[in-house]
Design brief:
heterotrimer, A mainly alpha (43), B mainly alpha (222), C mainly alpha (248), A: 43 residues, mainly alpha, 93% helix, B: 222 residues, 9 helices
Chain lengths: 43, 222, 248
């Protein structure tokens, strides 16, 4: 397999991995701040 | 107070009566399974040797996927009031669990027999080595009914049950699926199917224990 | 002081976020700095995220089982929140492990998927825990939800070894073509160290995620509790007192 071709796969893997991780972490953060806002409003 | 066995039989009899009135398994689930067997050749082609080869596997997949519908049939679901009444009746929750599973077991056994016949006809299956089938039918029906009843008990109420129970049951029924298909294949290849049968029996025992242990806490839940 | 006020007044910690960022960066730098494998070439770099993700998938589900059992024993909703948080994170890492495995398999073996026992088992676990998360969405009664999902959490782990053995036995009878078998990677020390760093930092990331996910679970439980205990007008606001004096 070509050298550059291998790097493409590595790039794809890391892009996939970090996109998923960042998206998930951001979703936790967003859900936390939304919940805090609701608790603040309703209490 | 009547004994454990009679309590279970009482519940099973109730479920069978309700099914006889509504005919849900007979007139809905069973035709649905049969039509699934009819659809597969339309999709993959009607090459006779190929159908003969995939037939048994397709049969078991249909039994696993559609058999779940027997566990979640309308006639076995209860309203909140009925659940309360059952809880107050003093019946042992484990006996109720086994009674429900027993009714589902009988329906599943019938389901398998009819669909087995349909498979033999549609896929032109040879009956070589099929002496093992009565045994696998009984074990799979027992395992699936115990698992389905347990899952239906965990999900309990709500409109989601119809979609959720199959999702819970399908991955956990894999030992039964593999055991059933491999036991038959081993026999046809002249090997022993003892390991596969034992594996399925262990699965059934584990499910029975899990069902008994969780019956009490699940009944408290409302 | 009600538990709700306690949580809202407890300052939210930024340390877990920083830890996650550092752990992710460390893994990335380490796996890019190490030399390529002699056989696999640059592709071996995928291993440094694939293996930790798979490890965390199993760890997370083990934690779910342990926390579920603790809930059934102690009846403390804190254990339920731990079980649920770990399950959600576990599903994310299982998805990652499967996806990364596919991206690694395609250039090495030429296929996206092989019916390898471990691969099949991981995919099955993914669906088992999706079912667990789906079950949690069906009821808003906190205690009922906790009890049902704890029973499923324990049942799943009792059943998974059976699934595991059945799949392994099935697999030993149907060996995949040798072409598709993974080439054994002869790892030298630098690669092993890098893999070690990646596994440790991913585990640290998991712990940090757990902190935040549990905080979220606590907030969500409080909202549910508040909605259920809030004063609701008996007949609702649709009913108003009749205006008797009008037209009189």
């Amino acid at each position: 397999m070509e050298f550059a071709d291998q790097w493409n796969w590595v790039f794809l893997a890391y892009a996939f991995c970090y996109t998923v991780l960042v998206t998930y972490v951001v979703s936790i953060a967003a859900r936390i701040s939304r919940s805090r806002k609701r608790l603040g409003e309703e209490s | 107070m009547i004994g454990f066995g009679s309590q279970a039989a009482l519940i099973a009899r109730r479920d069978i009566l309700r099914e006889r009135r509504s005919g849900e398994v007979l007139w809905v689930t069973l035709p649905f399974g049969a039509i699934a067997l009819l659809l597969v050749p339309l999709a993959v082609g009607t090459d006779a040797p190929m159908l003969r080869q995939i037939g048994p596997g397709i049969f078991w997949v249909v039994v696993m996927l559609f058999g779940v519908f027997i566990s979640i049939r309308q006639t076995s679901s209860e309203t909140d009031a009925q659940r309360d009444q059952l809880a107050l009746s003093g019946l042992d929750p484990a006996a109720v669990y086994f009674g429900r599973a027993l009714a589902s077991f009988l329906f599943l056994l019938g389901f398998q027999l009819v669909l087995g016949f349909v498979t033999v006809v549609l896929y032109d299956i040879s009956l070589e080595g099929w002496l093992i089938l009565p045994l696998t039918f009984v074990i799979v029906a027992a395992g699936l009914s115990l698992l389905g009843t347990l899952a239906a008990g965990i999900v309990a109420t709500g409109q989601n049950a119809a979609a959720l129970v199959p999702l819970l049951v399908a991955p956990l029924s894999i030992p039964l699926l593999i055991g059933a298909t491999q036991a038959l294949e081993a026999l046809q290849l002249g090997r022993s199917s003892l390991t596969w049968v034992l594996m399925m029996i262990v699965t059934v025992i584990v499910l029975a224990i899990a069902g008994v242990l969780s019956a009490q806490p699940l009944q408290e839940t409302r | 002081m009600t538990p709700r006020e306690q949580t809202i007044e407890r300052p939210t910690s930024v340390w877990p976020w920083i830890t996650m960022g550092v752990a992710g960066t460390v893994t990335f730098i380490a796996s890019m700095a190490v030399g390529p494998d002699a056989v696999q070439g640059q592709l071996s770099r995928i291993m440094y995220v694939h293996v930790p993700a798979a490890w965390l998938a199993y760890l997370a589900f083990f934690v779910t089982m342990a926390a579920s059992a603790m809930y059934l024993w102690r009846k403390d909703l804190a254990w339920d929140r731990r079980a649920a948080s770990s399950a959600e994170i576990g599903v994310v890492f299982t998805g990652l492990a499967i996806g990364l495995g596919m991206i690694w398999a395609k250039p090495t073996w030429g296929v996206w998927w092989t019916w390898d026992a471990r691969l099949t088992l991981t995919a099955i676990m993914f669906f088992v825990y999706l079912g667990y998360l789906a079950l949690r969405r069906t009821t808003t009664d906190l205690n009922a939800r906790a009890k049902r999902s704890a029973i499923l959490g324990v049942l799943a782990v009792v059943q998974v070894p059976l699934v595991h053995f059945s799949v392994v036995w099935w697999r030993t009878l149907h060996q995949p073509p040798t072409l598709l078998k993974p080439e054994p990677i002869d790892m030298d020390t630098s690669m092993l160290v890098t893999l070690g760093i990646a596994v440790v930092s991913f585990t640290v990331m998991y712990v940090a995620m757990m902190f935040k996910r549990i905080e979220l679970a606590r907030l969500e439980d409080e909202i549910t509790e508040m909605q259920q205990t809030a004063d609701v007008p008996i007949a609702g606001e649709a009913v108003t007192a009749p205006a008797l004096e009008r037209g009189a």
